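Forwarding these from the shared drive since the link keeps breaking.
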Amino acid sequence: MEQRRALRFHLFAEAVCRWQDLLGQNRESVGRTRDISIVGAFVVCPSPPPVGTVVSLEIRLPALHQDVPWC
């Protein structure tokens, strides 16, 4: 049974995670999204922050194609 709170969309986009480590040093890891929703994102990165860390997340969305009509 699906237990997600929101519909998820497959999206492969660059994601930048920023946080402070236990010594107060600024850290950053660049990864990719697997999917996103209005309430969250699944991000894969090579050096993720420790579980429970508060992070700032920047998702760099791909540009729309020129031939996509606007509604």
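-- next protein --
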Amino acid sequence: MKIVQLSDITEEGLSHAPEIKKKVMLRPGDLPHLTNFSQAYFLPRQRAAAHSHSDMFEVFFVESGSGVIRVDGEEHRLEKGTCVVVQPGEVHEIVNSGTGVLVLTYFGIEA
């Protein structure tokens, strides 16, 4: 068993956008096939630049705030309660287009 309290975790930067902060609750090796389980905090106008992963699926769940995710050039609205699955190889970019903090809980699964 493993118990993690979000309030006890130190923030770190996203690997492809270090100015955007995240808290990593689970890391590689904690569960089979899981690459991470994290929560990210996008301030207004912050953006995780377009990128893709050849070796994993990524699942994003919007806890609060609003924004957009572009997947292979197609824009989709993000709002509280939205869940998005990005397939391996799909180019994706996330932007906080709202006025408050966009909070995303997300995880990756090995392909």
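The chain is about 0% helix and 60% strand. The radius of gyration is 13 Å.

- D.
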